[in-house]
Design brief:
Layout (H helix, E strand, L loop, with lengths): L1 E4 L7 H20 L4 E5 L2 H11 L3 E5 L14 H9 L2 E4 L5 H7 L7 E3 L1 H4 L2 E2 H8 L18 E2 L6 H18 L4 H25 L7 E6 L3 H6 L3 E6 L9 H13 L4 E4 L6 H10 L2 E4 L15 H15 L4
Parallel strand pairs: 1-2, 1-4, 1-5, 2-3, 2-4, 4-5, 8-9, 10-11
Antiparallel strand pairs: 6-7
Helix pairs in contact: 1-3, 2-7, 2-8, 7-8, 8-12
Length: 320
Amino acid sequence: MILILMNFKVFPLLASLAIALALGGCTSADEADGTSVKVAAAFYPLEFAVSSVAGDAVDITPLTTPGVEAHDVELTPRQVAAVVNSDLVVYLSGFQPAVDAAVKEADPAKVVDVAQFADLKSLDEEAHAEHAADDGAEADHAGHDHGDIDPHFWLDPLRLAAVTEAIAERLAVIDPDQATTFASNAKSARSELSDLDSEFTAGLTTCARRELFTSHSAFGYLAMRYDLEQVAVVGIAPDVEPSGARIAEVQNLAREHGATTIFFETAASDAVAKSIARDLGLRTAVLDPIESVTDQSTGEDYPAIMRANLAAIQTANDCG
């Protein structure tokens, strides 16, 4: 099996590992029967990438249940078993502590940490990149800790394409008979994601405003790619309570830039975003970080949700 993971919370890990070893016998039997490659995918965008490359040629076990905040996921004993016994584990180190803990018990040769292919940036690096074209403009650092690494690379379609290609290469090593298919599917995925990138570039070229007022710092890669500026109420962790001073600062920035909309997410509390919007007489709207797909999502899969995000930004910023 190959495991694709992100960090997760540790919850009686030793007990879970004991159960995982007991459950491992089932996996071994499956492999003996010649069934498909077993892949554990840490969260939805990685699951989407694996599926884009392999389709029905692999058996994917998702580690983040739809609707669960991906940052805070806890693994069931069966999911821990999937991490330990899969042919491949695909994950993002440092994002989900529970997944990180389980990966430590897996065979390193069967683990892919996509961080090495995603070109991750710190929030400071993102902020400076967003302001690079402005003459001495000061980046907004107040909503985060210096040095925090932003894990949300998949909100840049081209970064997701690079990760998808890396997954295809690893799957080809595990299942050489399918190598040509994996490579062809990765090429198609790259083309589709490049088309999506072109839609964003064209759709956001001419906008009355270029700021994104968001509930937390999930959209830095999107902002960097399309010359936008993210103004987040809080940093990487969406469940942090913002200070009164930070809320006041965001309100002042919203007034200064003529914002019309405060964005929130379906998987996290919308209370602060709605409070800020209410105080300023602004709208609220969903901007989906696509950590999972649920009935509340703005689309049925990654491309559909990304296009819904594009439409929401265009409406908020009066893009022609």
